[in-house]
Structure formats: C-alpha cells, structure tokens
Amino acid sequence: MFNRNTLLILLAALAAGLGLWAAQVAFAPGGAPAAAAPAVDPASLKAVRLFPSPRAIAPFSLLQSDGTALEPAELAGRWTVVFLGFTHCPDVCPTTLTELSQAQKAWEALPEARRPRVLFVSVDPERDTPEKTGEYAAYFHPATLSATAQEPALEQFATSLGLVYMKVPVEGGDYTMDHSSALVVLDPRGLQVGLIRPPFVPADIAADLARLAEVAP
Q1: How many Cα atoms within 13 Å fall on the side-chain side of residue 15?
Q2: Cis ω on the peptide bond leading into residue 199 (within 30° of 0)?
Q3: Comparing 28-32, 72-76, 111-115, which segment has the lowest mean pLDDT?
Q4: pLDDT of 126-138, one tens digit each?
Q5: pTM, entire model
C-alpha cells in the first residue's frame, strides 16, 4: 500500500502535469486563452450590443485617401466604429455620417489616446476612388478615417465583419449600392466586439464608446 508521503507526491505530480498541459493548450501556436468577459456590463449600454466573446477578423489591406494601406495595425490601440457606404448614397450614408459626427464631436473632449474613431469604407470602388472617399468622409468630420479597395479584397473585408453589399441596376443604365446599415465596433486589439443597429442615437453612441474607452479590453 502507498503511504501518505507517496500519495502526496503523486498528487503533486498530477497537478503539475495538468498545469503544464493547460499552459501548452493556451499558448501553443494557433491557440489562444479564453476571451475575457467585457469590463463593462453589456446591459448598461444603450447603443452598442456586445457579443458574448470577441471575434477575430481576417487580415485585410484597404487603401486610404493618401494612398497608404489601411491594415489591422493601423486600427490598434483605440476603439473604432466601422461603417460601409458610398459617396453616391442618397440618404442612409449622409444621415449616418452626420449622426456619427455628432458622437465624434462629443469625443473631442477625451484624451486623443482614448478617443474612439470612425472608419468609413466605400463599397463602390468603381466610382469612389480613395481620394474621393476621403473627401466625402472628411466633409462630415475631419477625423473620420476612410478607405476602399478593389475586389475581392473589399468583399473579404466586409464578409469578415459579417456585413454585405451588392450592386443594384437602376433605370437609365446607372446603378446604386445596397449595403448593411449596421455599424461594427472594434476594440483596441482589432477584434470585433459588437454592433450598433439603427435607428442611431448620437448621444447614446457617444456615451457607450466613451465608457468602453475608459477600460482596456
């Protein structure tokens, strides 16, 4: 029979082995520790609907108005609200960007390092050059980031966020673009953590993002 000392040694070895196994699972290539629970109570937010756990988005490379690439690293460090649209949009896009500009004005009181950002991505690269997209976005607020891309990079970016768009012919041989109206919320790690669905209330968007920006994810 095992004596008491032998039993304690076996239990200690088992515990050490389990700890090593857990560490290997958590930190092995391709693996990641379980996502932490949101630091803000989701029920306390009025505009942002947080997901139960963050969602990674696929690597992307869009083109900004100054000709530089917009990649995930560019969005790291601050909260970002992403909106898909196009410059020929008759109503939804200008209305949404106007509402977001009101939230952006409220964020101007925050330290720049914690100030949330808005990213406008045109889904109409046929007509919207990066420069035109930037001019359009800046009309509503000068701090708005903007970008677009050719296919299939643009579709891959939208799909990774769970958003959709499509080209719709109209009379006279022209076309318009149908696209998701929801706003995607990215945390400072570049992970998709929630959505903002219409109707939009600028004061609620401003308050929710300012509160989320107070805490690290």
Answers
A1: 6
A2: yes
A3: 28-32
A4: 999 999 999 999 9
A5: 0.83
